[in-house]
Specification:
disordered N terminus; mainly beta; 8% helix; globular; six-stranded antiparallel β-barrel; Thrombin, subunit H
Length: 124
Amino acid sequence: MAFFINDPFPDDTRRFKRIKISSPIEYRFLNADRYQNTMTCDISEGGICFLVDGPVPLGAYVYFRVKLKTRPQPIFGIARIVWAAQEPYSMQHRVGLEFTEVGSISRADICTLIQEQKSSCFNS
């Protein structure tokens, strides 16, 4: 289990419930041609978190595409990097994206997915 030395979102600032989910995700910065591949950590109605191998610029926009095991089609869209934190004793960083445009599935659909998985929701 990972922890943050300086958690970017203490318990009381979360707007949406999150569920832990480990799924493949592809992302690329808007000015880049090539997608990077990694794994998600969690998802909420407002965004998604995943791991990357190095630092990323806060405020940057990325295209993303993630395949959830419980859905037939991937979720894709554009999101903004709102926080990043280096994992302890690792070169990896957790990156938090806030959805700005979701193309293949609505936020309501994501909310339904989270409600279906209530037992694994958490606020921190």
